[in-house]
Amino acid sequence: MSEIIIETKNVSKLYGVRRDEAAELLRGGAEKSEVLKKTGVTTALYDVSLRIPRGKIFVIIGLSGSGKSTMVRCFNRLNRPTWGSIIFDGVDLLKLSNQELLEFRRRKVSMVFQSFGLMSHRNVLGNVAYGLEVSGMGREEREKRARESIALVGLEGWEDAMIGNLSGGMRQRVGLARALANDPEVLLMDEPFSALDPLVRNDMQFELLSIQRKLGKTVIFITHDIDEAFRLGDTVAIMRDGRLIQVDTPEGMSTNPADEYVRRFINSADKSKVLSVRNIMITPVSLIKPGDGIDHALRVMRKNELSSVYAVDGQMKLKGILTLADAMRAKRESLDLSEMIVKDIPSTSPDASVEEIIPLAAESSYPLAVLDNEGRLQGIVTKASVLSSLI
Amino acid sequence: MMKKINRILGLLLALMLLAGSLAGCAPSQQAKTLTFADVGWDSILFHNAVAGTVAETVFGYQWSEVSGSTPITHEAVKKGEIDVHMEVWTDNLANYKDDIEAGALKEVSINFDDNAQGLYVPRYVIEGDAGRGIEPMAPNLKTVADLKDYASLFKDPEDSSKGIIYGGIAGWAITEIIHKKYLHYGLDANYNYMEPGTDAATSAVLVAAYDRGEPVVAYYWEPTWLLGKYDFVLLEDEPYDPELYFEGKTECPSVRVAVCTSNDFYEKDPEFVAFLSKYRTSSALTSQALAYIEDTGADYKTAARWFLKENRDMVETWLTTEQADKLYAAIE
Amino acid sequence: MNWLFDFPFIIRINTNAIDRAVRSFAADHAAFFDGIKAGLTNFVGAINWLLNHIPWFVLVVLVFFLGWKGHKRLRSGIAYSILLCIIGMLGLWGLMNLTLSIVLAGVTIALLLGLPVGVLLSGSDRANQAARPVLDMMQTMPVFVYLIPAVIFFGMGSASAVIATVIYAMVPVVRLTSLGIRQVDAEVVEAARSFGSTKSQMLFKVQVPQALPTIMAGINQTLMMAMSMVVTCSMIGARGLGNEVLIAVNRIEISRGFMAGSSVVILAILLDRLTQGWFSGRKNAGDEQQ
Fold first, then answer.
1. A78/C289 Cβ within 8 A
2. What is the ipTM, given to two decimal places?
3. pTM tops 0.80
4. How far B72 CA lies from chain C's nearest CA (Å)?
5. Interface contacts (A, C; CB < 8 Å)
6. The CATH number of the domain covering residues in A51-273
7. A290-295: long-range contacts at Cβ-Cβ below 8 A with a sequence spacing of 24 or more?
């Protein structure tokens, strides 16, 4: 089996009548805007040749209008290139008959969309099973597979929910589950996480990485976010105005940017500086008061599977933390709860940047408490959430 | 750009003003207006045009028509919203007698009262039509009573077990009488009775059947272009008796078709009312004029002028010599 | 001054020749038109037979339940069943069935024609543009213009009434079906394509279900337009409440006209609310599955 699953050669996509004239100009190195002005032809893609390795995440990055979305739609023929060829595992996609194309879409590729593209009249299960349904699979079999796929993205128990009742992150999990249900060889993802808020985006990126490692699928991932590209991509291709600028590993691209444009792109953002504690903190699931009994504290911890629990007073002012070990000791030795609360605990403010709190989080043996100016508990930051925001 | 548009608009406005003032110079001593009832059938439109032509040329009126159904135009005359009604089919208005007695409107003359109405069948049903290759279908059909034997001929499309009689137009007073007649002759045993919602619907049914050479039996009346143009036969009935007629047991009498005016108009222009009170034509004359329209495609005004010229002797009895001279001077 | 205000270029169309042609066409193809007429008449007759064999209280109870379940209010169910009883109490139950059978026949045919046409139009901008003036014409052409010709082709009675109803009432369902399908989220359609849907799978599994609320609004409007034809159609021999109104109006029997007219209004309200309630009810049920 070849290491390269998809190979494109000189793929171009032009919209307009005077395409030959436009090609002439483009060959001479003319800019997209110049071609439009002179010939009225829009250049979506020009002369893109790519080799996409099997079983890896291949990221295509670019700003809007760079042709990245047009490119990804060539891989399942939602777009038909004007010129060039696309070889998928030895099959020329441009030579498929209509019936073959349907089969190809049903078995070989599936796609995840930016605004999810889910059907509001179906529940989660119905959406995930859609691809199998149109390929003619029986109800029992397809629902079994859909349930597996739903479990894979962590949505067990939501099978019967209607799409309208899900959050954005959950919707995209459904989109991912739907794409995985067909067991495709290649997963096309068109800016799948752009519509999600930063924290959910982090979770989803993490989820995607772990699923990809588990299943070994080839993923072609479109984004306009360089951090996302570097975090996910084994290989990153950067596009501009319909042309391919550079293809390399993230490291290769960082150390050897092909030109000034790529350099600026890479320097444009570093996530940890931008993300603040507020973005990654979570609301504590359970709290105790200093006056509560030991048994109550133990029950709270057992129920939520926690190894420690924060104690607050009636105004939500932080009093300290009670660890499971201390609580057990208090129970054994019949000590008072308030004596066992550790008062000196690391805390931070919601506006601190994630980068600032990295050392603090690394040293502390408890989650960090996030306090406002008056010492009221706003949330907590676990080591895991700091880490996942940095991936 | 704005300036240019403004200038063009200004020019247009000036042109309109100019045209308006020129038009204003045309003879326009505030003409008197006169409204006629338009109940939709063609004979009244024809009579409106005749009386209207006289009103325009002799009395200097500008005339117009207000359309509405029989009862609605009747109410409008009572209210003075319509000045003149050239064809009040007195039997078709249940409250006509009461209204005249109560003085709600004025009956000024009888336009005609020699018209026929009743149940008609196409002549080919009885006699056949060799020219169109139609065999006689009911050679012995002569009277309304005979219909009993021919129910299977006039089949109801919605109820194949019975025949169908298209009765009087919904809401007309005659409709009740035709319905009683239908019951009186026991036709309800094997006929359904339908009241068409408008006379146009009956005309369409008759014309369509005639075109196809199919049998049909329906209530219709004269004078109408339809009976002038197509060859229909009125089914015979017992001789007219004013008592028994209302029970549907005899033939229909001729209807008094009256000319009425509103009380206001009657007061306002005695001279014109004097003309109307002498206005009298006949069913035959009216049919003749309608046939003229059907044959030549002329409009009602043209037909009215033709009619006035054709019947000069009669028209001169409606008017004073002076008025008649004025009329014929205008239309020659 | 007449040349300024009277339009000077008038074409004299030989209307007599056209009329004659239409009429001879009707006469020459009498068998064909009689076939259609018989089919429609039997269809209306069958519906009427069915309605006449539903006991009155069954219909009242049915309306009560539809009103109650559809609007999720006991009050609605009670109000609607009382309204229906009013028609019965006025002695117009049989006439209501007659009216209902013509309306239902017209709406059924309007939907059978209108839904597929709407789907076809949704697929092509050019077809949609070409159809627009035709649809406008069907909706704005004064009904009388085709009412009387309908009698020439199909005779007086329910067949002509159904045809006039179909012409007038079909437009909204065509328009809203086409609109609804066009308005389906482009990405949802793209997603369905990317999973290898055939055209018919796309239509029946994605586009139509997604457009359903809009399509239902079209069906509701079609029903209402069909109801608004009831009195007009009685002029060409449609029996029922409309005919009652017509007779009463022509005889200036104000109270009789008012009773029959109110029954038409009640029938329209019931049909409107019950169809609407049913669909908004279904949508709510979907939301509650959370």
1. no
2. 0.76
3. no
4. 8
5. 77
6. 3.40.50.300
7. A290/A319, A290/A337, A290/A338, A290/A341, A291/A337, A291/A338, A292/A337, A293/A337, A294/A327, A294/A330, A294/A331, A294/A337, A295/A331
